[in-house]
Write a structure and sequence with these properties.
By secondary structure, the protein is mainly alpha-helical. The chain has 5 helices and 2 strands.
Protein backbone atom coordinates (compact mmCIF):
# COMPACT_ATOMS: atom_id res chain seq x y z
CA UNK A 1 0.00 0.00 0.00
CA UNK A 2 2.87 2.39 0.76
CA UNK A 3 4.28 1.99 -2.76
CA UNK A 4 0.96 2.99 -4.29
CA UNK A 5 0.83 6.16 -2.21
CA UNK A 6 4.41 7.07 -3.15
CA UNK A 7 3.72 6.59 -6.86
CA UNK A 8 0.47 8.56 -6.85
CA UNK A 9 1.14 12.10 -8.08
CA UNK A 10 0.23 14.94 -5.76
CA UNK A 11 -3.02 16.24 -7.21
CA UNK A 12 -2.62 19.56 -5.40
CA UNK A 13 0.69 20.38 -7.08
CA UNK A 14 0.30 22.43 -10.22
CA UNK A 15 2.37 21.20 -13.14
CA UNK A 16 5.07 23.70 -13.97
CA UNK A 17 6.56 24.44 -17.34
CA UNK A 18 9.24 26.95 -18.26
CA UNK A 19 8.46 28.75 -21.52
CA UNK A 20 11.42 29.25 -23.83
CA UNK A 21 11.19 33.00 -24.48
CA UNK A 22 13.46 32.87 -27.56
CA UNK A 23 11.24 30.21 -29.12
CA UNK A 24 8.09 32.12 -28.17
CA UNK A 25 9.52 35.27 -29.81
CA UNK A 26 10.35 33.29 -32.95
CA UNK A 27 6.90 31.75 -33.15
CA UNK A 28 5.20 35.06 -32.34
CA UNK A 29 7.07 36.87 -35.09
CA UNK A 30 5.21 34.65 -37.56
CA UNK A 31 1.86 35.48 -35.97
CA UNK A 32 -0.23 33.75 -33.34
CA UNK A 33 -3.79 32.78 -34.17
CA UNK A 34 -6.55 34.27 -32.04
CA UNK A 35 -7.86 30.75 -31.49
CA UNK A 36 -8.37 30.10 -27.79
CA UNK A 37 -6.42 32.41 -25.54
CA UNK A 38 -2.97 31.73 -26.97
CA UNK A 39 -2.40 35.18 -28.41
CA UNK A 40 -3.24 37.05 -25.21
CA UNK A 41 -1.19 34.70 -23.04
CA UNK A 42 1.77 34.93 -25.43
CA UNK A 43 1.69 38.73 -25.24
CA UNK A 44 1.47 38.69 -21.46
CA UNK A 45 4.57 36.48 -21.28
CA UNK A 46 6.46 38.46 -23.93
CA UNK A 47 5.74 41.76 -22.17
CA UNK A 48 6.83 40.36 -18.81
CA UNK A 49 3.40 40.57 -17.18
CA UNK A 50 3.47 36.80 -16.67
CA UNK A 51 6.69 34.97 -15.78
CA UNK A 52 8.02 32.31 -18.12
CA UNK A 53 7.49 29.73 -15.34
CA UNK A 54 3.84 28.73 -15.68
CA UNK A 55 3.85 27.42 -12.11
CA UNK A 56 4.04 31.04 -10.89
CA UNK A 57 1.15 32.37 -12.98
CA UNK A 58 -1.58 31.78 -10.41
CA UNK A 59 0.41 33.52 -7.68
CA UNK A 60 1.24 36.51 -9.92
CA UNK A 61 -2.34 36.86 -11.15
CA UNK A 62 -3.77 36.65 -7.62
CA UNK A 63 -1.27 39.27 -6.39
CA UNK A 64 -2.06 41.64 -9.26
CA UNK A 65 -5.81 41.19 -8.89
CA UNK A 66 -5.52 41.99 -5.17
CA UNK A 67 -3.47 45.10 -5.94
CA UNK A 68 -6.06 46.20 -8.49
CA UNK A 69 -8.97 45.67 -6.08
CA UNK A 70 -7.13 47.68 -3.41
CA UNK A 71 -6.42 50.49 -5.87
CA UNK A 72 -10.05 50.65 -6.96
CA UNK A 73 -11.17 50.68 -3.32
CA UNK A 74 -8.78 53.56 -2.57
CA UNK A 75 -9.77 55.62 -5.60
CA UNK A 76 -13.51 55.22 -5.22
CA UNK A 77 -13.85 55.64 -1.46
CA UNK A 78 -16.58 58.02 -0.39
CA UNK A 79 -14.68 61.08 0.83
CA UNK A 80 -15.41 62.42 4.27
CA UNK A 81 -16.15 66.09 4.78
CA UNK A 82 -12.53 67.07 5.43
CA UNK A 83 -11.30 65.40 2.23
CA UNK A 84 -14.15 66.99 0.31
CA UNK A 85 -13.22 70.45 1.57
CA UNK A 86 -9.55 69.98 0.73
CA UNK A 87 -10.44 68.82 -2.80
CA UNK A 88 -12.67 71.87 -3.29
CA UNK A 89 -9.86 74.17 -2.20
CA UNK A 90 -7.46 72.42 -4.60
CA UNK A 91 -9.91 72.94 -7.47
CA UNK A 92 -10.35 76.59 -6.54
CA UNK A 93 -6.60 77.20 -6.37
CA UNK A 94 -6.15 75.42 -9.70
CA UNK A 95 -8.77 77.71 -11.24
CA UNK A 96 -7.00 80.80 -9.85
CA UNK A 97 -3.69 79.52 -11.17
CA UNK A 98 -5.13 78.97 -14.64
CA UNK A 99 -6.90 82.36 -14.63
CA UNK A 100 -3.66 84.10 -13.80
CA UNK A 101 -2.07 82.60 -16.93
CA UNK A 102 -5.11 83.08 -19.18
CA UNK A 103 -5.32 79.34 -19.81
CA UNK A 104 -8.25 77.05 -20.51
CA UNK A 105 -9.75 74.38 -18.31
CA UNK A 106 -11.92 71.70 -19.91
CA UNK A 107 -12.04 73.65 -23.17
CA UNK A 108 -13.39 76.84 -21.52
CA UNK A 109 -11.27 79.95 -21.22
CA UNK A 110 -10.58 80.72 -17.56
CA UNK A 111 -10.30 84.49 -17.04
Amino acid sequence: KEKIVEQTPNLYEKPSHIIDLQELRRISSQGIAQKGSHRSVAWRVLLGYLPSDTGQWEEVLNRDRTLYRNLVAELFVQPDHQQSCSRESMVESEGRSLRGRGLEKDGVSVR
